Write a sequence for this structure.
């Protein structure tokens, strides 16, 4: 898919632009499913977590489910609009110091002891890859654009860090046994790596 093509039965097809893959996982019903290999999971830009809705949100869900007529969906953005926004994200400034910060944050997940987090040294089997640095830079720029700014800052990086890296950090058996989570590692990294 990185090449923008798929092959089925020996025939190759170009994928439409933009081409997006969304995957869901229900942590309650995983019988018969297997975790993705690390290299495959690393190709997903984000890993979002959704909890239960609040009371007001759940009431709205019930209200909508009980409507006599289902509402007609309407397009908010077409493919060309998505590509145009993507090009705009490319124009959001990413200062060299912010790039260094992003790289330091991601590198700290690979070498916690070197980043001053010795307590996590034997708890993290694999930290986030360089693909995480790219994703963190891109999503920080996108968040800045959605916030109406033409520059990304440390707050954008911090806001996107967990969603970008939680599926890219693999814990050791010891870390898992102690109840450590990738989100806890990310929080500690963000509290330790100096902000430019």
């Amino acid at each position: 898919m990185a090449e923008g093509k798929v092959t089925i039965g020996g025939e190759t097809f170009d994928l439409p632009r933009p081409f997006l893959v969304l995957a869901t996982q229900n942590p309650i019903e995983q019988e018969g499913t297997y975790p993705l290999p690390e290299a495959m999971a690393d190709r997903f830009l984000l890993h979002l977590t959704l909890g239960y809705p609040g009371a007001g949100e759940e009431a709205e869900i019930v209200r909508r489910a009980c409507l006599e007529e289902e509402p007609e969906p309407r397009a908010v953005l077409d493919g060309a609009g998505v590509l145009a926004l993507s090009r705009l994200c490319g124009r959001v400034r990413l200062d060299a110091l912010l790039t260094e910060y992003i790289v330091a944050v991601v590198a700290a997940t690979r070498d916690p002891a070197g980043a001053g987090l010795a307590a996590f040294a034997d708890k993290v089997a694999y930290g986030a890859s360089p693909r995480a640095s790219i994703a963190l830079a891109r999503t920080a720029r996108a968040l800045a654009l959605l916030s109406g700014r033409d520059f990304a800052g440390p707050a954008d990086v911090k806001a996107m860090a967990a969603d970008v890296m939680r599926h890219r950090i693999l814990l050791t058996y010891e870390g898992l046994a102690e109840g450590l989570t990738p989100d806890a590692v990310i929080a500690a990294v963000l509290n330790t790596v100096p902000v430019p």
